[in-house]
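Render this sequence as a predicted structure.
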Amino acid sequence: MVYQYVAYNEGGQLVRGKLPAVSEEAANELLDYAGYQVVSLKEHIPFISLDKLSATMGQVKPAEVILFCRQLAMLLESGTDIAASLELLQQQADNRVLRRVLGEVLVEVRGGRQLSTALVKYPKIFPPMYSQLIGIGEQSGELEKVLRQMAEYMEKEVATSKETKNALRYPAITFVVAIIVIGILVTFVLPTFGKLYDSLGVELPSLVRMLMGISTLVKEHGIYILLGVVVIAGLVVFYAKTPRGRYLRDALTLKLPRFGRVKHLSELARCCRNISFLFHAGLPLTDVMPLIVQNSGNKVIANALFEAEQGMIKGEGLSQPLAKNKIFLPTMVQMVRVGEETGNLDVTLLSVAQSYEAEAEDKLRSIITLIQPTMTLFLGLIIGLIALSLTSAMYSLYGSL
């Protein structure tokens, strides 16, 4: 951080300036060592900061964090100290936000703070779970090993997310194309045929008249309709970001046909993998569960995990509180019980996570396989129905002639 000071120098002159320091106490010590008598000292907050502006507009991708963990582990293994390693990685960082964050972390590390303590200030880049793990690595002297494990874990999460997005990309593109084609037909093609049939005195089929009415309505009141859709969508998005709205959204997501099962399995797999990873790293369950609740991507499952945590604190263990909530599937509960009895909770939960991930992947693949022909059939039916209506009107014209 940068502090702005007003002080008297050794000659008794009033001077002003800026000073980078870890904390206000450190800045006071530096000024006192330089022979300054401090009058005023406060954090410097510029009116417009390019770094802060880039921090709000930019973001650090998971792949960049993974690369940082691997490079830091490699430098530490080669014998480079933590401060020199951070300085080197900061100079090589291409991302402006990451470069700024590493610079601030470097200042704190040189000021005597541990790396885990410095990273806690940046939860959007380094979640609390990762900071906790780095702290364990610092205490055990195996920071390089922990950093590599973190990189491998994050790579697994990124790969799973990328596979899901890639699988849903084709159905999404097909749906957008279907909407565009139908919009072109209703907006441009149907009015042209409608004018032709009106001039010839041919009565249009009911379906074509209905579509023509929709086309006319869109042309005459399109701006108001678009404005209404934007307002409604904005209200829905705003409500979905509230605690109650997010809970209802997540609950609805779990109840969706087919997709709900995939989402449920994916969230439980992530939960099991996180517990296994943290427990294997040496964290006790009393420290693991709060991190798991905080890191959960679904509010319904997060609330269920919090209830399980409260039961565990009361001395019920972990499997017994999990069994009370139907959100946790029987296989998971049974394997947790086995892990508690054998002392291999990390191993049993890792096997559950792998099983759920495989099942979720298979179900998602089958859904995608079903969606693709369904979307194509839907688009073909709509276009075919419109074409059939127009041709039937044309046959009516031929009949009258």
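Summary. Confidence is low (pLDDT under 50) at residues 47-57. Residues 342 and 348 are 10 Å apart (CA to CA).
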